[in-house]
Amino acid sequence: MSPSPATVIRKCSGPAAPFTGVFALPTPVNDASGVAHVCEHLVFRRSLHFPEAHNLFAALALLPLRINASTQEEMTFYFVETDHEALFYHALSFLYSGLLNQQYSDDDIRREKNGVIFQELDFYEQKAPYRQHVASLLEEGKYGEAFTGGFTGTVPKLMTEVIRQFKSRYYRPDNIALLINNGDTGKVADKLNAVAEDYGYGIPCQIKPESSGVPSEFSPDNSDSDKHSEEVKRLTGYYKATLKAQNNVSDNPAKSSAITFTDLIKKPDLETLFRGGKPALLPPLISDETASLVTTATSFHQAFLQSTANDYPPLPRYVLAQWPSLVSFEQIKAANNDWYIAFTFSDSRKAALDKLLMQSRFWSPRISGHCYAMGTGRAGDMLVCYFINDRLADSRMEYCHWLITALK
Predict the structure, then answer these.
(1) How far, in Å, CA of 341 to CA of 359, rounded?
(2) pLDDT digits over 63-85, tens only?
(3) How far apart are CA 138 and CA 393, in angstroms?
(4) Domain boundary assignment for the chain
């Protein structure tokens, strides 16, 4: 957005609540490797300030906020929304630390690349509408849009050094912009500057006037429209319109200097892209780490946490739609990799589950790279723990008995 050597912060005033922020950065790719998608995931894996791999999942389950991300053809976006101003600033620090972090073990990268992301892509590639959508994009020559997330036939082949190169090249302060709809830009800058200093960056964030270089009219960004709130779409559209006003979209400097990771695929074979042999299964991660994102939020902002009162987030639409086909753990061997375990709601059981959600052991299926998604929600008088596209769906009896014992 600017030649500034530091992160640019812009305010695009909107509703008083929820507080909404969008980190945006160009992440140009020229192949189907899925490298930008892998880097998107690594932002949430761990960072200098929040080293536990399950921080995001514990926070989404226990705190009144939403955090998500989207990798598009030439850029990646990270979103945070909450009704609480103090939590908003804290969540922005969490995201910014993940954006700037460059230290990942080979094991971290493999578990995201060959584990979680492979399971995610496999989940979608099994569905006819998704395959038809990709085929249609390729027929129209929209390779960039079709290739953005990678495929089961390409992502496992990515070399770890290529991933590190890409993240260090594009995930740096001067390539990142932050748009917020509300809040104090000075306080936001102080939070981000403190994070950047710990990573060795000394140039403070640049706060841009709201009216500077901004088009008078712009349209919300409807990419992944079912995934994002109207306010996220508005801020994302604002960012894209600002780039366009600065003549930065069609001739993006980052794109012209993009690293060539593999030869550009001119005539892709759809079946080759979709035929990814399953990578070797990595051993489970069993540890007892506590989610520092939640503990620090609790210690700094206990007052707003009291207002979470607190049902868990609603079950995802996919889980609700598939509910008849999901199976409980007693019949897990009949599952199609999607399963759940449910408990009758009680205040004491919810308190016990809250404690488990803070611990890495609960999230082991996800952080080990064995399933695409997992989480908790309330359905009527039941507390539900769900697991989507789990490679070890037929081997979870021990995990379930541990959970049952902990929630008695």
Answers:
(1) 18
(2) 999 999 999 989 999 999 999 99
(3) 34
(4) 8-267, 313-407
pLDDT at 215: 58
Q: Which residues of 330-345 are buried (b: 16+ CB within 10 A; e: fewer)?
A: eebeebebbbbbbbeb
What one-character DSSP code corresponds to residue 113?
I
CATH class given for the domain over 313-407: alpha beta
pLDDT digits (tens, 9 = 90+) for 120-165: 999 999 999 999 999 999 889 888 899 999 999 999 999 999 999 9
Helix (H) or strand (E) holding 379: strand 371-379
313-407 shares the fold of 8-267 = no
CATH 3.40.50.150 fits 8-267, yes or no: no
Residue at 136: amino acid letter: S
Beta bridge pairs of residue 180: 11, 21
Instruction: Read off the pLDDT of residues 78-116 as tens digits, 9 standing for 90 and up.
Output: 999 999 999 999 999 999 999 999 999 999 999 999 999
